[in-house]
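User: Can you model how zinc ion sits in this protein?
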Amino acid sequence: MRMTESYIPTLREVPAEAELISHQYMLRAGLIRKSAAGIYTYLPLGLRVLHKIMNIIREEMNKAGGQEILLPIMQPAELWHETGRWDDYGEEMFKLADRNQRQFCLGPTHEEIVTALVRIDVRSYKQLPIRLYQIQNKYRDEIRPRFGVIRGREFIMKDLYSFDRDEAGLEKSYQLMYDAYSRIFSRCGLQTCPVEADSGAIGGDTTHEFMVLGDAGEALIVYCQDCDYAANVEQAECLYQKPEKAALHPLKEIPTPNVSTIEELTAYLDISPSRFIKTMIFLADNKPIAVLIGGNHKINEIKLQKAVNCTKLELADPATIETVTNAPVGYAGPVGLQIPIIVDYSAAGIVNGISGANKEDTHLANINFERDYIPTKVVDIREAQAGDPCVRCGGTLQTARGTEVGQVFKLGTKYSIPLEAKFLDENGKEKPLIMGCYGIGVSRTMAAIIEQHHDEDGICWPVSVAPYQTVIVPVNYEDEKQRQTADHLYKLLTESGIETVLDDRKERAGVKFKDADLIGYPIRITIGPRQLKEGNVEITVRESKEQIVVPVAEVHNQLLTLLS
Ligand SMILES: [Zn+2]
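Assistant: Here's the modeled complex, given as structure tokens:
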């Protein structure tokens, strides 16, 4: 492609709206343009990158036994009523009606519609397994669309659905996808880390997220330094800690006038936060419960909600706290409380702990588990943190931020039972299909690649996903000798299948170099008067900045070596 015939509007300034490097470079390099909040147009270069990512995905999905289909974006409400998700999905679903007031949604995901497809055509175990996938736009009305295409309201996903006859089949499909995902991300030049995750609104049991580690990530994960355990903090298990061996002292009131937060208490009493039992009052389905946790830990509300099995969980208001503790806010403690007491492992392990006395300006010292209060439940409800022991090997956990680019779920019969997607097994018995679903955020993968491959001048695309592999930059295209060499190389490389851009613009060399670095072509061929006098051109590798001078006649061979 000749630059003079292209649509590549690059920007010099950093757009104010863009916080993340990937978002800034996608706008500046002319890959995308914003159409509305969280909704983007892909310009020619951006679309070329997307297509390359999609082709890698297609090849690996087909290799893993997938067949591509295209499901509709607009989906009838009836199917979503069958699974109950029309109401459960919440505000994130875009809903619309046709002229006859028939309800539809713009698909945020496609479990319902693909299951409804398969239930029509599949009758027998002989037709299984089936693995269907599509690469399609999805719609979610995010409260805060941000970070460019990383959290958009319209985005492109690859989603595959597997249908198997039994758990063993599902296990095989899951493993095939897990392995395919590892190959896809590695072929895209991405370093990813598979982590155990919470299944959220999609449902099901086992799930792994493929995270791209980096400070820009929205998710917090923990990983073990000594084995391959990694999990989302929402999901990461914490171990029961044995109480330390120490003599139990008698309960003692300590006056703490106007001192109520853990920070104030540790300063006032000059004691480590790990000696404190934080007592918090929550409303679980509107009923008050006390939650105890070690003073140096944070409650994980997802775990807490699962532990108490409620649908609504919120911190209690001051009036409720005062009623259940008979004291102002800040002096709650477990001793004498008449409501259920949920105890985190961290609090159960504290010997001679300190907590509120349920009395104004007073705390209690030497509180001991079971001697001074009876727990309703002792569970893991805290957030994992750096320094915790690993649940697998006992090693030490570290934390890191990450962006999710893919997720694999075992759904089981969550959709096939309500949607009555059944088959006859070898004994003629009717059974529900066993399902799995597997997503990759295609547009998000593009941003994640930039997050991992850039420098202060712009993007450094891996060859496999670069919009073009090579750019030819004549320092002055008006010069006849430079023009002839540039045109010759452009024709030669293009005809041999190397994707090449010729920067034939009437611009200063500096402008052309800046654009080439910003857009991030893996290889730049510079044609300047000094080297050309000797019959040479200069080749620059974008990522390493390595430069080599080669005779014009050897450019093609040199490029084949560098690109492979
Ligand atoms: Zn470990």
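A couple of observations from the model: The domain at 252-379 is CATH 3.90.960.10 (YbaK protein). Residues 489 and 552 are 8 Å apart (CA to CA).
User: Helpful, thanks.
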